Amino acid sequence: MPRQTHPYTFDLGLLLANDPNPISVPRTHDTATLEAHLTAVARDGAQVLINQLLTTCPISSTPQGVLLGLPPQQTPLPREKPVPTPKPETKWEAFAKRRGIKPKTREQRRNLQYNEATGEFERRWGYKGANKGGLQDEPIIEVNVKKEAERREGTSVRGDKRREIREKVKRNERRMRKNLRNAEGRK
């Protein structure tokens, strides 16, 4: 084997041994000779890496076997995927920035409010939420005669609240789709 002019460089955290010396390939066209030469170069590189690991890394013996502690890696590796592109600003985000509207604090986002009538905390929305209006619990509901006359057959007063909630959800979804279309158009 010819003498090495440059020493190996190591990154033991990645189990990497880098040989900066060029590989001297024999001029023969015989593939067996070429394979034997490349195998010898790979074997020498692996042996140098193992020797470096055994001499510089801490070794500990456990009931499961012998453990070799690796140092932290030194070579920065590139990302597997490109850095994600920032999402386009929605119409609401642009409006909020212009008006100086900030996101709610943790306390403002809490789903509890104090009910003075019962003296307990209750949910603002969701299951048994205060925004349901307690229509399920009220035995008697006042009926607006004008609205009742306009009402179609088969609807109920209790169903109106649910219908309003469904309409709000649909309206919000339409606005969301419109925002996405506007954001795509601004690219």
UniProtKB/TrEMBL annotation:
<dbReference type="GO" id="GO:0005634">
    <property type="term" value="C:nucleus"/>
</dbReference>
<dbReference type="InterPro" id="IPR007023">
    <property type="entry name" value="Ribosom_reg"/>
</dbReference>
<keyword id="KW-0690">Ribosome biogenesis</keyword>
<feature type="compositionally biased region" description="Basic residues">
    <location>
        <begin position="168"/>
        <end position="180"/>
    </location>
</feature>
<keyword id="KW-0539">Nucleus</keyword>
<protein>
    <recommendedName>
        <fullName>Ribosome biogenesis regulatory protein</fullName>
    </recommendedName>
</protein>
<feature type="region of interest" description="Disordered">
    <location>
        <begin position="69"/>
        <end position="89"/>
    </location>
</feature>
<comment type="similarity">
    <text>Belongs to the RRS1 family.</text>
</comment>
<dbReference type="Pfam" id="PF04939">
    <property type="entry name" value="RRS1"/>
</dbReference>
<feature type="region of interest" description="Disordered">
    <location>
        <begin position="146"/>
        <end position="187"/>
    </location>
</feature>
<comment type="function">
    <text>Involved in ribosomal large subunit assembly.</text>
</comment>
<dbReference type="GO" id="GO:0042254">
    <property type="term" value="P:ribosome biogenesis"/>
</dbReference>
<feature type="compositionally biased region" description="Basic and acidic residues">
    <location>
        <begin position="78"/>
        <end position="89"/>
    </location>
</feature>
<feature type="compositionally biased region" description="Basic and acidic residues">
    <location>
        <begin position="146"/>
        <end position="167"/>
    </location>
</feature>
